[in-house]
Backbone:
């Protein structure tokens, strides 16, 4: 693991951020770390959060991403 210091806030980089968009399903997935998903939670805003065994966020999946403007905002920067 690599520790990166940004300003006065230390940050641990677990992996590179991965952003994927499926235009047919209109689903945007932001993967934050490697690991098996032990639990998932559907939030009120049509987002699904996947957690590992220790309760850390593995990914966030946004349903209807183009309707929320996320696909066009994030994919050119991915």
Residues:
């Amino acid at each position: 693991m690599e520790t990166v210091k940004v300003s006065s806030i230390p940050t641990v980089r677990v992996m590179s951020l991965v952003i994927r968009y499926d235009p047919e399903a209109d689903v945007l997935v932001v993967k934050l770390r490697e690991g098996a998903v032990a639990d998932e939670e559907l939030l009120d805003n049509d987002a699904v959060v996947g957690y590992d065994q220790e309760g850390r966020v593995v990914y966030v999946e946004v349903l209807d991403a183009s309707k929320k403007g996320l696909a066009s905002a994030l994919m050119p920067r991915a």
Q: What stands out?
A: DSSP finds one helix and seven strands in the chain. Residues 1-7 have pLDDT under 50 and may be disordered. The chain has one domain: 15-77.
